Amino acid sequence: MNPSLLLVTDEEATREAISGEVAGLGASVIHASSGEEALEILTSQPVDGIITGLKLKGIDGLTLLKGIQEIDEQLPVIMVTAYGTVAAAVKAMKAGAFDFLEKPFDQDDVRHTVQKALAMTRLVAENRVLREELERQYDFSAIIGTSPQVVEILRLAGDVAVTNATALISGESGTGKELLARAIHYNSGRGGHPFVAINCATLPENLLESELFGYESGAFTGAEKRKIGRFELAAGGTLFLDEIGEMTLAVQVKLLRVLELREFSRLGSTETLRADVRLIVATNRDLADLVSKRLFREDLYYRIHVFPITIPPLQERTQDILPLARHFLLELVERTGKMVTDIRPEARRILLNYGWPGNVRELKNVLERAVILTQDNSIGPEHLPLRLQEERVSLANVAVSLPRQGLSLEEVERSLLKQALERSRHNKSKAARLLGMSRATLRYRLKKFSLDAE
After folding, report:
1. Phi/psi of residue 310, nearest 5 degrees
2. Given a cut of 90, is residue 240 above it in pLDDT?
3. SS3 of residue 288 by DSSP
4. In which band, very low, low, confident or very high, does the pLDDT at 231 lie, cut at 50, 70 and 90?
5. N or C: which end of the chain has fewer CB within 10 A?
């Protein structure tokens, strides 16, 4: 669809000169002879830009500009003046005009100015579409699940979204911590401002500090020009710190200062900048345990532990597996064009019985692989990885015999608990999965045998 420009002038010579150049750019021209007529047209049909004189019959160009801004403040308005004084141009630009054209017209200048205005309108429209898509993508309704755990997570997320409180999202890798963080942001009062994410585990200490706070030219070797940090980029919006448990103690001190004073400085600068951001942090580690081991600052822990939300592993909410699988299947159909619409009963049973150590991310990857492999409209066991189809080892298949002299059942339990912790590198969710119990049950048993502090 060709762009359209509204040309507001009662001068025939101006109308002919500008209309010819605009038509050459593939745009259509709508004519209005007065400011009042222009405003009437704007209320009935959309346009991509406006060219108007400063001197008009009825209301003048500056008054028309104010009326246009009340209808659409992002619509570019080009002012035409025969009075090419600096004062007239400055007044129009200060009032919000996009640019101005001076009589007598230079053809190249007219074309260039109109092209810039139309390009800005396209960019604004694209940004609006992207913004609407982001809002749809990260609406709370986009978080799939019917389990009581997910219902409670959404309730908590909705409660904290309307505040500026720091949210701490805990959960294993792949459970959807960043998705939930984005949903909180886009459903908050800061949703129209940036969401800036950084993974604290992927950067060494010196790089993480410069990424967070930015730096000035010459701040250190290799700093050739100023770099804006994530705190500045997130101004007015949300800064998401993923895997905050991996942050070194030195950077923790500087983060704590920002949270306490709401201000910071770029590396190599003495200028103090305001930190107008909402903080959401996430971790797959037990921060309280890190505090007890002096690997995480206690004061920072209490600063970020304002509103904790825990996302349980997928194994603990099997009720969500099939709804998630169907959701991913629909996404993949839309993306690939393959009409795979069904998961056969045996494949569904395999999905439900698998432990999902990689959580939701692993489920999504498994479904994508299956859609690629299938040659019909359904997914069967043959399209799923073999690891999913390996049955869990049960005691019925393991030779367990009681020694003649007997044994202490508590010692056996204690030994198995210690082995599970060692094999999982003290990740309690993974240890619980190895033992076929819930995380809460594991915590109880660890406490019973005084293993919770080890």
Report:
1. -110, 125
2. yes
3. helix
4. very high
5. N
Structure confidence at residue 175 (pLDDT)? 93
Longest dimension (CA), the chain: 112
Residue with the two structure tokens 């921060």: 287
Whose CA is closest to 281, among 166, 155, 158? 166
Sequence-separated contacts (24+) of 128-135 with Cβ below 8 Å: 131/192, 134/186, 135/186, 135/191
Show the tokens assigned to 44.
């009935």
> So where are the chain's domains?
4-133, 138-312, 316-389, 407-448
Closest CA to 435 of 342, 315, 329, 350: 315
Domain 407-448, second-level architecture: Orthogonal Bundle (1.10)
Per-residue pLDDT tens digits for 411-422: 888 888 888 888
CA atoms within 13 A on the CB side of 185: 28
Give tens-digit pLDDT for 174-211: 999 999 999 999 999 998 899 999 999 998 888 898 89
Residue 257 burial (C-beta neighbours within 10 Å; 0-12, 13-18, 19+): middle
- In this structure, the number of other CB atoms found within 10 A of the CB of residue 53 comes to 22
pLDDT, one tens digit per residue, over 109-147 is: 888 888 988 888 888 787 677 666 655 666 777 788 888
pTM, full prediction? 0.64
Contact 144, 130 (CB under 8 A): no
Q: Do domains 4-133 and 138-312 have the same CATH topology?
A: yes
Cα distance between residue 196 and residue 237, in whole Å: 8
- CATH architecture group of domain 316-389: Orthogonal Bundle (1.10)
d(CA 7, CA 317): 61
d(CA 53, CA 80): 4
Please, what is the average pLDDT of the chain? 86
Name 236's Cβ contacts closer than 8 Å, sequence gap at least 6.
Answer: 190, 193, 194, 276, 277
Q: What would be the CATH architecture of the domain defined by 138-312? A: 3-Layer(aba) Sandwich (3.40)
Of 177, 9, 136, the closest CA to residue 78 belongs to 9
Short-list 283, 436, 442, 430, CA closest to 358 = 430
CA 113 – CA 82 distance, rounded (Å): 17
Collect contacts of 443-451 with beta carbons under 8 A, ≥24 apart: 445/413, 445/417, 446/417, 446/421, 449/410, 449/413, 449/414, 449/417, 451/414, 451/417, 451/418, 451/421
Rg (C-alpha) for the chain, rounded Å, is: 31
Half-sphere exposure of 293 (CA within 13 A, CB side): 11
